[in-house]
Design a protein that fits this description.
- This protein has three helices and four strands.
- The protein is α+β, with helices and mostly antiparallel strands.
- It has one domain.
- The longest helix is centred in the N-terminal third of the chain and has 62 residues.
- This is Membrane associated secretion system protein.
- Keywords: Membrane, Transmembrane, Transmembrane helix.
- It holds the Pfam family TadF.
- It comes from Aliivibrio wodanis.
Length: 186
């Protein structure tokens, strides 16, 4: 090896170190972002399945208890749903913390076509679940039944505060994962 080649390699060592550091930082950010997205998608899937199951429980309550009853959803019913959701997430999420969990249960019933007779909303658990529009504002998605009455609407929204891996690095807040399921009643 000649003298020029040795000098060239010695001068390039600093350049290689800088390039390696830049690539290492970029790769670390990519791994943190991927891990954060994977965690949030996993939690989102669990919340999706659970909110759909819970809204079906609310919908079927009239069949199980009193089909002729037109009573509004009670706070105790909503609290039972919150308890079911908490217990389910405690089993499926290894790091479940009830202080990071929120439940919003809504019900709209109608007295006649598009006339709301009752609207109830229960915000339960530790976190407040934010929705862009209340279920009462979405009353136009209700349908008329074969008995010519407008069917009630039910919505269960679940939210959970996850870890904020990439947000901490970028100075942003990407923590809340939520899922909302709407169902028409019987």
């Amino acid at each position: 090896m000649n003298l020029k080649s040795k000098r060239f390699l010695i001068k390039q060592r600093g350049t290689f170190s800088v390039e390696f550091a830049i690539v290492g930082i970029f790769f670390s950010l990519l791994l943190a972002f991927s891990g954060d997205v994977i965690i949030k998608l996993s939690v989102k899937g669990k919340l999706d399945r659970l909110s759909f199951s819970l809204v079906n429980i609310v919908k079927e309550q009239t069949q199980f208890y009193d089909p002729d009853s037109n009573k509004a959803l009670l706070r105790t019913d909503a609290q039972h749903l919150e308890e079911i959701a908490s217990n389910s997430l405690r089993r499926t999420l290894g790091t479940f913390d009830v202080s990071n969990f929120g439940v919003l249960v809504e019900e709209v019933k109608f007295s006649s076509e598009n006339v709301v007779s009752s609207f109830v909303s229960y915000d339960l658990a530790q976190q407040t679940c934010a929705v862009s529009r209340t279920l009462q504002e979405l009353k136009n998605i209700s349908v008329m039944s074969s008995w010519d009455r407008q069917v009630p609407l039910y919505r269960v929204t679940l939210c959970y505060e996850t870890d904020n891996w990439i947000g901490d690095l970028l100075g942003s807040d990407f923590t809340t994962v939520s899922s909302s399921s709407i169902m028409i009643g019987r």
